[in-house]
Model the fold of this input.
Amino acid sequence: MKNYEIKALLIGLTKLGCSRKYTRVNKAELALDLDVSAWTLNRWIREAINRGLVNILKDGRASLYKITERGLIELLDLKKLLEDQLEDFISMKGLVTKGLSEGAYYMSIPEYEEMLHKALGFKPYPGTLNVKILEKYVPLRRILEKYEKPITTGFKKNSKEFGGVGFLRAEIINDSGRKETCAVLFIEKTKHGPDIIEVVAPVNLREKLNLKDGSEVKLIIYLSS
Done:
């Protein structure tokens, strides 16, 4: 179980009152809130209990849950990270990684290319730069998604449905301090996990910033235009 999954579970339990007292949890609602299956939720809860982050109390046939002191410390660390970040931008660090060529595919479709050009104000270089953000930043991904600006909600072409795409303006900085204006994309039908940020720019970022797989970069992502 990854740390961002632990934090997601703890946040979900906190919303149900488990940070203050033993509370009965509607697992179906919690799984829906966390966007995971019932099987995954039960696995997360078992591991959180094994790690000493959550306690369980049996009340007849019902199970009550309460976040432990250790779990609360995890939440306080996340609270501090959020307080440090929540201005008009969010910054995060990550490593350049090889992608699945999804960005190149989307930008090869004329409709997407035209809409991206119009929304971003520049013609994007074909393909995206994929950045695997450090695990502590993954919980911030959902915050970014709440601020994303839609480019398209999707469309249908030749009986095939194409999903929605959103964006936020950003800057990317390499380890020597050189930076380029860019945007991060939010692709509805992506095959990537929440730890991958797809970056698009008017230039080839790998060449411009001398990046290769494993290069560390910093992203400054703006929450407003």
